[in-house]
Amino acid sequence: MSDFLKIKNLKASIEGNQILKGINLEIGPGEVHAIMGPNGSGKSTLSSVLAGREDYEVEADEVTFLGKDLLDLAPEVRSREGLFLAFQYPVEIPGVSNINFLKAAINAKRHHQGLDDITAKDFIAMVKEKQALVELKENLANRSVNEGFSGGEKKRNEIFQMAMLEPKLGILDETDSGLDIDALKIVSNGVNKLRGADRSFIVITHYQRLLEYIVPDFVHVLFEGRIVKSGGKELALELEAKGYDWIKEEQEAIQH
Amino acid sequence: MSNTKANFLRQFDDITAVFPIQGDARAAIHNGLDFPTTRDEKWKYTRVSSILAKTFKRNDIAPLAHFSLVKNECQLVFINGSYQPDLSSALPSGCAMESMAEMKGETRDYMLTKLGRLANFKDQAFLGLNTSYFHDGAFLKVEKNAIIDQPINIINISQGQDQVSNVRNLICIEPNAQVQFVHRFEGDSNHEAFTNSVMEICVDENAHVDYYMIENEGAATTSINATYVSQARHSNFSMVTITKSGQLVRNNLHVAINDVGCETNMYGIYFTDGNQHVDNQTYADHRQPNCNSNELYKGVMADRSTGVFNGKIMVHQAAQQTNAFQSNQNILLGNRATINTKPELEIYADDVKCSHGCTIGQLDEEAMFYLQSRGLGKEAAHKLLVQAFASDVIEKIKIESVRKEVETFIESKFI
């Protein structure tokens, strides 16, 4: 296994409540890992902790991303190193233009890599190309970040930003929740086009349906802050058929 | 009269009265017209006692040695209240300026009929003080039907340690004229000074006026400003008050909407830090039907700085079909910054649309994290959010150079 992303015994608490109770996960380059689990199992906490949200107390034996201690990096540095979190609830930021913000983000990453600012010409060409990827209307790109966007537009905008920032690891935090089938297809299609040998994804979802469109290499079941089951894509189907109660009962049986 | 007041006023005794109105104003200020204290509702949060305890200097004409001022087009310069012809330049046709101190004959008589008409010295002691002792100022007239396409710059500079300046200006915009003013207050960066300014703007029928006030005096300066505006029918008056610096800044804006079909826009930006104190008081006086007024003041306060906003919309019984909107929004950075805000509506008409409100908050942490998660550093994210907060006032600034100046100022302010 390569050292693309290694998570060993990751624990996270908020206000004294332990949410993640020892996560172990290894992800190789180009792999797509789905993380499923019932509500409250810690799915969003995992994505938040990986992206660097400061609200949590975090400890782990090891969390390395491309050989670097991820927990040691500020959220902006994690991003510049190639980690991208597509938010479950993208934030509306009135007054900040989508385009200016993206340009600033791209340049921050380029500076981190020792490169100069992107040229206006290259930037415009890139925006055009990536917008098409998620069928984002041109005027959305010129509006304030997520302001007045529909739920579907917000999620498409997340994938658009991901496409622009060309991360090595994309974390999709319940990107499918609340999407109708058309929007789901567009978003999945966008993600699929971004898949490649050196780009990995963590797809966090509550529903199996998304995984029909973004077909994962591995599926993990998160339950009460631990990964309790891992398998191939067929595990998602099993979960869909049996429901999360199956996991609960199995866990209870183990504990007793 | 209290000893403090008597002592304070004594330093002005040697000034000769040059305008007829000054006799009455002096009588008022030496008698019942007292300086406000924090017991006065409108001055509850703004303490002026330290000004009254001081003896100031008056250099009517000071050297400009260290003040780099470019002689631009359409520029009128006053230092410590005195007109500086050498630093000033010609105004475009349709527009005339005269120094009040230099005026003679009929034009002076005409000016005197306008002077003090909008700003009644009996209203308030600092206005009384200004009226009593100012010695010069700009009298600006924009002729009927004149469309002035270049902004007119009025620059009031305060120079010298402990300088007191009673700055006075009067602008008459005749019917159908259209004009933009950029009124700057500049000053020595470190000197303590006191600027007490009064501006009267008379907007005639169907005239359009944009007025930008940029307060950029020294960090130790106390600045008390009164702006009185009157609007005749179908006129349009828009003002943006931009407070960039000053130790204590108090702005009184009073707009008398005297006739039908007027539009009034009052906007403001105040960004404070250190122990700055900025106080904006506004009054939109709707006296006649079918007028619209919009007001939006935005402030960001850091460190131990304090802000005050007190806006009042008065809708008289005759002023049916008034649309009047007022909003004051604030962001506090840091735990020791303070804002006291009071939006007020007083309505006597029964067919109006009015709203008022205020918000006080912090920078949105979720938005900060969102921006950081896209690679923006904390500082850049912070700046972007502050700029975004100010953007709906900034976009009201129609002169590009002023807009740029404000953007640059915001960028430099909170690093």
Task: Give an overview of the whole structure.
The complex is a heterodimer of chains A (256) and B (415). Chain A has helices at 43-51, 75-80, 98-112, 120-133, 138-142, 151-165, 181-194, 210-213, 234-242, 245-255; strands spanning 5-14, 17-27, 32-36, 57-59, 62-65, 68-69, 83-86, 93-97, 144-145, 169-173, 200-205, 218-223, 226-231. The two termini of chain A are 35 Å apart. In chain A, helix 4 (120-133) crosses helix 6 and helix 6 (151-165) packs parallel to helix 7. Chain A is built from ten helices and 13 strands. Chain A is globular. Chain A is of the alpha/beta class and 256 residues long. Chain B is an alpha/beta fold and 415 residues long. Chain B folds into two domains: 3-259, no CATH class; 364-415, no CATH class. Chain B has helices spanning 3-10, 21-30, 49-52, 105-114, 125-133, 365-372, 378-394, 400-413, and strands at residues 75-79, 82-83, 95-99, 138-142, 152-158, 163-173, 178-187, 193-203, 208-216, 221-231, 236-243, 248-257, 263-272, 277-286, 292-301, 306-315, 323-332, 338-347, 353-361. Chain B has a ten-stranded mixed β-sheet with strand order 2-1-5-7-9-11-13-15-17-19, with helices on one face. Chain B has a nine-stranded mixed β-sheet with strand order 3-4-6-8-10-12-14-16-18. The mean pLDDT of chain B is 94. Chain A binds chain B through residues 51-54, 74-76, 78-80, 84-85, 87, 90-91, 93-96, 101-102, 104-106, 108-109, 112, 144-145, 161, 165, and chain B through 364, 366-367, 369-378, 380-381, 384-385, 387-392.
